[in-house]
Amino acid sequence: MKMIIFFKFLTTTIIKHYNLEVFKINTNCKHSVWKYSLLLIFIGLTFFTINASADSYDYKSLLKMNLELLNLVNTNPSIAKIEYLTPKTYEGRSIIAIKISDNPTKTENEQRLLFVGTHHAQEWISAEVPFQLAKYLVQNYNSNPDIKAIVDNTEIWIIPVVNPDGYEYS
Asked: Which residue from 27, 24, 40 is spatially nearest to 136, judged by alpha carbons?
């Protein structure tokens, strides 16, 4: 419970400090990419810490993570696309990225953001936060005009597991 309160406080403090005022971001400003990035990170962190406890959260296996990413894209193909990065890992596993954009099949002249997780083995939460961020953006695109504005003006790339060999090992 203390962790949840801390992250709510931290999120609120940073949004106020950087004058983000609940998504009031100038999408025409070429320097606003750091604001998008900061905001999206804290959406993910706040969402994850509110809905999970380190003692009770059921972390996903690599297979389940990949299946849920594919399901997220299959149910929202107009704003999400899966990319298999090359080359494969040392042990032959694919590194899967999800691209979230208003035109995911096109390369547009938009700002790009990259979020990655699980650089090392045994960093289970570092896969969950980017995954929850992707899920939040896709699921709230049609109902939240602020999320829609972010997605419509940015190419967001999320790789929840950049080290699938280490994730699978642990």
From this structure: 40
Task: Collapse the DSSP code of 114 into the 3-class scheme (helix H, G, I; strand E, B; otherwise coil) and give the result.
Answer: strand
- Hey, what are 76's tokens? 């929202």
Look over the chain and give the mean of its residue pLDDT values, rounded to a whole number: 77
User: What's the pLDDT tens digit per position in 29-59?
Assistant: 444 555 566 566 666 666 655 555 555 567 8
Q: Domain boundaries in the chain? A: 2-169
Task: Give per-residue pLDDT as tens, 62-119.
Answer: 999 999 999 999 999 999 999 998 888 899 999 999 999 999 999 888 888 888 888 8
CATH number of 2-169: 3.40.630.10
Rounded Cα–Cα distance for residues 92 and 149 (Å): 38
3-state secondary structure the chain: CHHHHHHHHHHHHHHHHCCCCCCCCCCCCCCCHHHHHHHHHHHHHHHHHHHCCCCCCCCCCHHHHHHHHHHHHHHCCCCEEEEEECCCCCCCCCEEEEEECCCCCCCCCCEEEEEECCCCCCCCHHHHHHHHHHHHHHHHCCCCHHHHHHHHCEEEEEECCCCHHHHHHC
